[in-house]
Design brief:
about 500 residues; mainly alpha; 18 helices; 2 strands
Length: about 500
């Protein structure tokens, strides 16, 4: 039986995992110029790497990316490989499998029947069933060994006494006792198949699904115990990568340098000179601000730091969600400021307005999104919603001046320097930063004013952001400490001197 159906791939975060691996591989480079040192020639000649070294590095990066995906993606699951419809690989697979099953059927129809292929299948099935057993399944193991005794089966085949049907039904019964509840319907269908070849073919299909179920069960069981091992594994793998590619932390160093520069400038603006022992430049504070900057990153032009490269897509998605929540909360703040006390406390109004704005902002990061048109439409729709709600509760209709003011203020949110938008942006950033600072104490920070309508979404975003940041800190803290110590003890970073 061809075993290519046994291959599995990660699901849940598959797109982000594949993209992360591909991006990391593209950044595998030997002695490339530093991003903050221009094109200065290297002191030593370039070192040529062999194909074997590159393959070994790529394998290490792939393994590291997979281990990382399992830890940070709570929805990670193993899924059976699905070859693309109409692809050459799928056609070849179908042809090979059809030839195999046709050959098996022809052998069983011979007079006397030939059981060469059938016995090989029974051996493979036995091996698979035994692999599902746990240490406490001693009696079940003995039963499988007894019924699927291959030497005895071979002897029965030679003497014309082999009953494939009986063995197949035994196999189906064992599968039913070992499978997950979600496979009960598949087992029921197996019991309804009477012809030998279709039954064996269906047995292998269900066994493949059971392998996936077993892998996912194992993942969910061991994930709580994997944290420390995963941290050490990723750190060691990255150290190996760094030894082969000494410039593999260039963008990480620039990321931390720019953060230190920003904090120094902020301290200077507050009329306080920032020394290396300033609270603003404490390592934990620098790290937290550095991670926060990832939610404002220009992904189109700025290379992402190497140490967070596997999570670039995740950070980009969180950045987009933060931008959506900033605009959503800005619109709702304008509505409640403009409409006044008349709408405060009206049942269901907040959720209605929120759903309306959410629908209009769903595609705000698509290339086809036209912000000016979208916010003009949002203003129109909210005026209709407000007028309807006020009338239903016996209030005076929304005035023409009020509608005009509301639509104007909402349209003004398209400008990045809009006062309300900047205010809500600052509050969201402050909340995320406070969450990082309080993560050691497991105490959530208080929600800033104006963010109550989006509190649920903001808290979900904060949990994802904090979890990802804290795991990254655990893995790469030794590298960060070394880089930061060099930056702070140098007085001024190279980038600020230039």
């Amino acid at each position: 039986m061809p075993k290519d159906t046994d291959r599995c791939e990660g699901g849940g975060g598959k797109e982000s995992q594949d993209a992360s691996e591909e991006t990391v591989r593209k950044r595998v480079r030997a002695n490339t110029p530093s991003p903050h040192r221009g094109n200065t020639p290297q002191a030593s000649p370039p070192r040529f790497v062999s194909v074997e070294e590159l393959m070994e590095t790529a394998k290490g990066v792939t393994n590291m990316a997979l281990a990382h995906e399992i830890m940070v993606n709570q929805a990670f699951q193993v899924k059976p490989t699905e070859l693309p419809e109409g692809s050459l690989e799928r056609k070849v697979k179908e042809i090979v499998h059809k030839a195999f099953w046709d050959c098996l059927e022809a052998q069983l129809q011979e007079d006397p029947p030939s059981y060469e292929h059938a016995i090989k299948l029974l051996a493979e099935i036995k091996e698979t069933l035994l692999s599902f057993l746990l240490p406490g399944h001693g009696r079940l193991r003995s039963r499988i060994e007894e019924v699927l005794d291959l030497p005895l089966i071979q002897q029965q085949a030679e003497n014309g006494a082999l009953d494939i049907g009986r063995l197949s039904q035994f196999i189906v019964g064992i599968m039913g006792s070992l499978c997950a509840p979600c496979r009960d319907e598949d087992i029921k269908k197996l019991k309804e198949i009477s012809e030998i070849v279709p039954l064996l073919k269906a047995i292998f299909s269900v066994l493949d699904l059971m392998k996936v179920d077993m892998a996912n069960f194992a993942l969910s069981s061991i994930r709580p115990h994997l944290m420390q091992q995963s941290v050490e594994y990723e750190r060691n793998k990255f150290q190996e990568f760094l030894e082969k590619h000494p410039n593999a932390l260039d963008y990480t160093e620039k990321w931390l340098e720019d953060t230190v520069k920003y904090l120094r400038e902020a301290d200077s603006a507050g009329c306080r000179a920032a020394s290396h022992d300033s609270p603003a430049l404490a390592p934990l504070n620098v790290h937290n601000h550095a991670y926060l900057r990832l939610l404002r990153w220009d992904h189109a032009s700025d290379p992402f730091p190497e140490t967070v490269l596997m999570d670039q897509i995740r950070f980009q998605e969180m950045q987009q969600e933060a931008e959506r929540l900033i605009l959503l909360s800005s619109v709702l703040l304008i509505v409640y400021t403009t409409a006044g006390e008349a709408i405060s406390g009206l049942p269901g109004l907040m959720e209605t307005l929120k759903n309306t704005v959410n629908a209009m902002l769903a595609d705000m990061h698509a290339l086809s999104f036209r912000a000016q048109d979208a916010f003009a439409t949002i203003g129109e729709k909210l005026c209709v919603e407000l007028s309807s709600c006020l009338s239903q509760h016996g209030y005076s209709p929304f005035s023409a001046d009020g509608r005009s003011t509301l639509k104007g203020q909402i349209s003004a949110l398209t400008q990045p320097d809009n006062t309300v938008r900047k205010l809500m942006d600052s509050r969201v950033q402050s909340y995320l930063l406070a969450a990082l600072e309080s993560s050691q104490h497991k105490t959530p920070p208080p929600l800033p004013g104006g963010l109550t309508p989006v509190s649920r979404e903001l808290k979900e975003l904060t949990v994802l952001f904090s979890r990802l940041v804290n795991f990254n800190k655990l893995v790469f803290s030794p590298f960060y400490q070394k880089i930061l110590q060099k930056i702070l003890t140098s007085g001024e970073s190279p980038s600020t001197e230039t």
